[in-house]
Amino acid sequence: MAAAYGLYTHIQSNKRRSVALLLGLFFLVYLMVFAGALLAETLTQDASLDWLIRKALQDLIWAAPIATVGTVAWIVIAYFFNQSLIDAVTGSQEVTRKEEPRLYNILENLCISRGITMPKLKVADDSALNAFASGLNERQYSITVTQGLLDRLDDREIEAVLGHELTHIRNLDVRMLVIATVIAGVIGFFAELLFRMMFQGGWRFGGGRSSGDGDRGKGGGMIAIVIAVALVAAAWLLSVVIRFALSRKREFLADAGSVELTKDPDAMISALRKIEGRGELVGATSAVMEMCVDNPREGFADLFATHPSIDSRIKALVDFAGGHDPGPIELPSESEPQDNESADATAPEQKPFLPSEPPVVLGGDGVAPKPADPVPGPWGPRRN
Q1: What is d(CA 279, CA 144) in angstroms, rounded to the nearest whole number?
Q2: Catalytic residue among 165, 251, 260, 290
Q3: I need a labelling partner for 28 at 20 to 30 A (CA). Which of 4, 57, 161, 297 fits?
């Protein structure tokens, strides 16, 4: 478990995957453009399938530069504004040591202990128990925790959660998730655009024979539409698979990295038990939830879960890090006082300690002598 933190092979694998994902994004965009061109030709021309495919390929060649520029622009926008969008969705605010000394000091101590550049620290005003790391480079990296997490977890557990998120940053998992989200956003946008065009087109086939087109033939429209729809669906499905194909091992490695940082597997287990079933952020998109410590899924949705179950993560910590599982943890409602607060409220009033007798003088009979009468000095009587 300890060796998982900053695992070199995992980091190198994430770097290669990032490049592959970006190249895959362009491929999927071109595939969507071709499908759109095939659909457009089908809705305006009554021709054979071969003729429609040739025309769609010509349209793709013509539109490829535009699609490339648009995709690059999308990536640039995501690079510079992804954090602002995440903050807007979650309502996160950056905090300083003065505003959150407890949280700030815990994170700073973790970073100093390993020589890690300290990311920005943010708090989301949400009663859910969760946290996530975000950013594409060292200047953007940040860790966001919810107010609910701060209120319900003790210092050891918060340290474990912060160690988990620091490991995600160190292992470049954060960058991978942002890139995958960008891909899903681009493909989802194009897919919706094409389906709208298809249904608004009313499945009408045009006529008109353009000069120089050659023999177009007829009857290929319906097959071309089926191919176009299949390509759009395949591209969208691939973008979804990319998001969920990001290995669930990243969460196991982040848990292990937290243990390596804090030397406290029980704290990570306890934090996971408290977070379990209480992590759903109000108004957060699925892309944001995929970055969180826990992304709860139930029933059929669990097939597409981006996180392993809490039980399997805790089992790994017990088996490989020597932790102890306390089982599900019940938390008091927000209206109920915490244990330490109730104890303070019922404790009797403490009075300052005052000795009832003068201090005992060592070496005597155990009783302090009474002060002697003032002895006059050269400048008059002394004052005790």
Answers
A1: 13
A2: 165
A3: 297
